[in-house]
Amino acid sequence: MALQTAPPHLGSQRTLAHGSLLLLLLCLEKACPPGREAQVVDENLFFYEEWELEACMDGALLATQMRQVNRIPFTYQQLHIFKRKLDEVVQGSARLPQRGRPRCPSHGGGPHGPFPRKFYPQGYPQSLIEHLSYFFLYVTPEDIHKWNVTSLDTVKSLLKVSQGRGVDAQVAALIARYVGGGGELDKAALDTLATFRPAYLCVLRPEQLGSVQLSVLWMTTPQDLGACSSLQMAVLYHKARTAFQNVSGSEYFTRIEPFLGGASTEDLRAFTWQNISIDAAAFKKLPTEAVLSLTVAEVQKLLGPNLVGLKAEAGNMPLRDWISRQSQEDLDRLGLGLVGGVPNGYLVLDLHSREASSGGPHCLGRGPGPVLTVTASLLLVSVLS
Ligand SMILES: *[C@@H]1O[C@H](CO)[C@@H](O)[C@H](O)[C@H]1NC(C)=O
Ligand SMILES: *[C@@H]1O[C@H](CO)[C@@H](O)[C@H](O)[C@H]1NC(C)=O
Ligand SMILES: *[C@@H]1O[C@H](CO)[C@@H](O)[C@H](O)[C@H]1NC(C)=O
């Protein structure tokens, strides 16, 4: 009650005073004292207070003297200020006075020395990236995704400074930019990469994945594989199989499970020989192509005691398509109540092998293909009429 009846102008006066104080603080924060403008990156800057660095440092100067930045043991806080200054140049926002802040009376265009003002709206230029060194630990994956990285030496030097620093996302972004630009990684680079969390796997081309160390597979988590294509998964599955050779049974299955998206029909058949039963959750992740060629008996063996779990997946891929290709009689034998198979007495047409065989020149003129098609059409016609 008392608050509500208080005279309103008191509140606005307070806001006004608050605003002036804020303006004063902002101006104090921004103005570089005369003679303190940074002309060169040297040890003197180490003794600057943070607000002074903020006010007296120029991003364009930093961009040209990155080697010096890395030579001097600046503090974490100072380096963060440098990063911000550099970003102002990179994003082209340094020219904007005060970025929406109130204008300070005695403050002009900013503390700019004799350096030509450059802007890098496309991201850091190669000349800067080459000399980033430890400053790489302060850039974000978003920064890196704008870069053009064409030098393997640069990649290697940045990998070196990143080791043990927990910048796996930055490393993945760097590799993505380099490989995306057509860059090749040599064995030394791949060996160094093997010391990072493999968040970079899905940016490597299949042939590059082939050269990845087996130890990497032991560190790989399902998240690392989220963006991989089926081609990449196929390479990784085969590497994983080799990598996990020294474990068996349920441990083997736990290890290989994240890679199942790369398994072929033959790989799945091999599971049934090894008495490895996959569960319905894992079945869901199998490539449709690999599942479609399995017989009912093979699927039964593949799931073993987990077969009952399949019922819940009947409407989902890859099971839905697989069911539609099986004879209903075979499906009935599973005792799961799966429906949607081919009714008894109808031909099960394997469209894939028919397409494949009609595509091969040596099969031209062979009888069964066209005859099968005709039979199927006749059956369809008789069903419809
Ligand atoms: C990267 O390369 C592209 C295409 O060549 C170019 O348009 C872009 O400006 C380059 N970016 C940088 C930061 O050099
Ligand atoms: C199998 O090999 C990997 C890497 O070579 C090792 O980390 C793991 O402990 C080994 N496991 C067994 C059961 O030998
Ligand atoms: C698979 O299981 C069957 C039946 O339990 C057994 O006879 C066979 O030896 C097992 N095969 C392997 C490779 O463990």
UniProtKB/TrEMBL annotation:
It holds the Pfam family Mesothelin. Keywords: Cell adhesion, Cell membrane, Cleavage on pair of basic residues, Disulfide bond, Glycoprotein, Golgi apparatus, GPI-anchor, Lipoprotein, Membrane, Phosphoprotein, Secreted, Signal. Residues 1-38 form the signal peptide. It is found in: Cell membrane; Golgi apparatus; Secreted. The lineage of its organism: Eukaryota, Metazoa, Chordata, Craniata, Vertebrata. It is a lipid-anchor; GPI-anchor. InterPro entries: Mesothelin, Stereocilin-rel. GO terms for cellular component: cell surface; extracellular region; Golgi apparatus; plasma membrane; side of membrane. GO terms for biological process: cell-matrix adhesion. Belongs to the mesothelin family. This is Mesothelin.
